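Entry for the shared binder. Reason: the reviewer on the internal report wants the predicted structure included alongside the sequence.
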Amino acid sequence: MKFRTTCLTTLLASVGLASGAWAQGISDNAVRIGVISDTSSAYADIGGKGTVAAATMAIKDFGGTVLGKPIELLSVDHQNKADIGATRAREWFDRENVDMVIGLGNTAVHNAVATVAKEKNKVLINTEAGSSSITGENCAANIVHYTYDTYATANSTVKAVTEGGAKSWYIVAVDYAFGQALSNDITAAVDKNGGKVIGTVKHPLNAPDFSSYMLTAQASKSDVIALANGVNDTINSIKSARQFGITDKQKVAAALMFISDVHALGLKTAQGMYATTAFYWDRTLESRAWSQKYFKVMNRMPTMAQAGTYSAVMHYLKAVEAAGTDETAAVMTAMKKMPIKDFFSDDGKIREDGRMVHDMYLVQVKKPEESKAPWDYYKIIATIPGDQAFRPLSEGKCPLVKS
């Protein structure tokens, strides 16, 4: 593929990088990106093969090379097992000279891989997992949290539901780091908006039956049952709520919902539910154009994690080009100084703590009769500016942030 030329001198000056960084060039004569995602288990629909496809599209659209060197893509299925993710990341860094890993799709896997990435001083961009602790107490100079987090999704959804008059909340949470983070963020948001969490029940990841959990939540007689889980667990929680008639008397609010979840549920079951998303395929001309390209590859519309992966890979490659090297510190400096303006984000930026800040969107799932075409699932109720959607730097407890 032809080398895509840009005015590097101007770009280098704009990000404040010295010519010494350019002299370092590309290590091992290639830029290697590794996708670590779940392609076979609970989170396969939100990331998985779709994340690999999005990364592949970004590399192709960039031109296939950067600074005259080839861009190579590797991928692995972490199977929602932290040890598999960490082991493969270590092998990639030590033997394959991988420069950046992306995806991750599970907070426990992220934490394990992040430990290795910090040790090896490699770039990690999380586009799939949600825990707000990634840019909180677990932040690091080489880590970016790109698409969404539990703070952003919980706050906007809770605010919308409480403003509708619901005050008492009961949480159904998946029992691992992500569920704990989402529960904490829901509780804080409920308190901030004048409500009260009256109880919590926990379930294992990818639980086979949600009857007992949802009936326990129903027995609480709370105004709202908040789902602090994701994907299959969210889908099955909502199905159980409908099955037992819970939604006739109590609201069910998913603190995290992907468009793939709505697709799996169908509009008849999912209608009326609120969610907060970083991306909706039908929001703008640009988002529609890119999503149609993605649809031709995957025969489905992208989730926010998959769209975020494309955007993140493009931003990373632009930063390598601007820095004149794939050296981690130089690339991270460029990534944090360069704005992100594309079909995914109108005006994104990577903060000091690694959080990519951008607008989020409060959406409501359409009724079946409101949908005019396949995947026409959301009404955008409100746009939440990035500086309001994401946790303030002062509250994150990130050790990189100066007090």
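Summary line for the report: The first helix runs from residue 8 to 15.
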